[in-house]
Amino acid sequence: MSGSTDFREPPAAAPNLRFASEDSGLRAIAEKVFAGERLDFAEGVALYRSGDILAVGWLANSVREKMHGDVAYFNVNRHINPTNVCVAACRLCAFGRRKDSPGAYTMSLEQAWSAAASGYSEAVTEFHIVGGLHPDLPLEYFLDLASGLKQRFPKVHIKAFTMVEVAYLARRAKLTIPQTLAKMKEAGVDSLPGGGAEIFSDRIRHIICDHKIDGDEWLETARAAHRIGLRSNATMLYGHVENDEDRVDHLLRLRALQDETGGFQTFIPLAFHPDHTALEHLRRTTGLTDLRQIAVSRLLLDNFPHIKAYWQMMTEKIAQIALRFGADDIDGTVVEEKIYHDAGATTPQGMRRSELIRLIREAGRAPVERDTLYRSVVRDEESFTIAV
């Protein structure tokens, strides 16, 4: 897969005529945005530091509406976390456990397949699968997990295994990352989630996740996935010990890889939840920080087709507002989410399709159910079809 769609066409109208801010730097940034010009590092930092958050949000919303109009996407998905046993011991994580620790679990394959079948009665279109870096589970376990799901649920898209998991399993199996990805694709994996990116800065990763692959390795794994036709998402964990420059660096490194491969389809900013982690002395992000992150992401990631407001992390209420700050996606039904709830998330672990539709409509957007590849899903009472 090579090349990327250009999402930087200037708006058909002239919205800059209506843009007003006392921040002269922001006015200059707006002129570039309306001209379809790419923002640079210094302008990214300026967006984070501007005191006019409403103007930043308005600017991001103008780009979002140019790309997607009033549409807001959601999907009916099911999260499966097959194990929380993990060797990484990241300071940012409340989910991972040593294998002999209280609360550690590992699903058998039958349990994982059963978990996939449980939940809501309506058919899911996506299984989202991530877990810990288990010291004993071989690559074959994860290949069998994917192939078993594909056999039982052939219409469901399998979005499975972060770049961190792929690199870890490749190392344990003594395979290259491309070889490992090829085996996963053959087993039924259709795309990859974007987790584990955290912040690419080496300085920050040494503090929060020293035992994970570094930022360059994460990007190289994503590059290898895109090269064999596996699309992926991308994330950034913010609101811990990083600064504005670290955030901009992270976004621009993602943008550069997207220029090369075109393989990213959605960017998901993830607010750090410090509860029950080694960093629990830190404060949670505020709503304004979350909304600014959505807006800056939309403005800097001009070649990413979608920005997601992950309601599980930022609450349903902030996710609604984010649909006016640059986000065009609110995620899905989820059914059962463990990773962020172990870190103190107080949102529901799942949400009904009808509730997601209500949230989107109340935000003044038009809800469109999608599959993982952003094709429209058309439902009747007993089944669904994918519009191609």
Strand and helix layout:
Blueprint: H1 24-34, H2 41-49, H3 53-68, E1 71-75, E2 77-80, H4 109-117, E3 126-129, H5 139-152, E4 157-160, H6 163-173, H7 177-187, E5 191-192, H8 202-208, H9 215-227, E6 231-238, H10 244-261, E7 264-271, H11 287-300, E8 306-307, H12 311-322, E9 329-332, H13 353-362, E10 366-369, E11 377-379, E12 384-386
Parallel strand pairs: 1-9, 1-10, 2-3, 3-4, 5-6, 6-7, 7-8
Antiparallel strand pairs: 11-12
Helix pairs in contact: 2-10, 3-11, 4-5, 5-7, 6-7, 6-9, 9-10, 11-12
- CATH superfamily label: Aldolase class I
Give the number of helices. Answer: 13
Query: Approximately what portion of the residues adopt beta-strand conformation?
Result: 5-15%
Q: Find the structural class using helix and strand composition.
A: alpha/beta
Euclidean distance between termini CA atoms: 20 Å
Q: Report the average pLDDT across residues.
A: 88
Largest sheet: number of strands, sense, barrel closure: 4 strands, parallel
Helix content: 25-40%
Side-by-side strand order of the widest sheet: 5-6-7-8
Rg value: 20 Å
Instruction: Count up the domains.
Output: 1
